[in-house]
Amino acid sequence: MSAAENESGSLRVVVGLSKISLALRNQAWQQAEELNLTPTQGQILSFLKARTSLPSRLTDVAEGLGVTVQTASVAMAALLKKGLLRKQKHPDDARAMALYLTTEGEKIAQLSALWPDFLLAAVDSLSLTEQDVFLRALVKMIRILQEQGQISVSRMCTTCRYFRPGVHPEPRAPHHCSYVDAAFGDRQLRFDCAEHESAPLPVQDQLWSQFLESAS
pTM of the full predicted structure? Predict the structure, then answer.
């Protein structure tokens, strides 16, 4: 394949992703209006719902959503006023405040989490092999964007101390999670795992190399 053909293919992928991104933004605004929220407010609720076992500071929320602390603070203040969030002292730092969902916030967060469901039917139309390839490609793209500082670092399998890539001979489940002591495949790779513990950077690089080799 020539360089020109490869560049053209890359551009088409970017255009396709931009169309999906536009659909997500439009859906987010539509659903947010129905719930009397802004998209950022809805994302905060979904973020906190996904981290129910972890106390979250304002800075954690901002980093997790890839927005400024000021943007997160404005949205958080609105959610507190609506009674969807509550604050209390952080269990690990008495000088900091942790954010938690209220009972009503839990209900709204459940609805907010449904925003991307319109994509589910499209993804379900892909074969299992296509889903595996697509998910693996997303993991690789996200890692590159994280290294470039374009998006916040997430708690992915590939940076976790419990991740053992490509250690099993079974093609559908080549990886191992030592936290739950179970084999799993590419389709079970997580982008935001509550049990994630970051491995040291040299180990992360080694895990990444092993993960790439596991596909060959």
Answer: 0.67
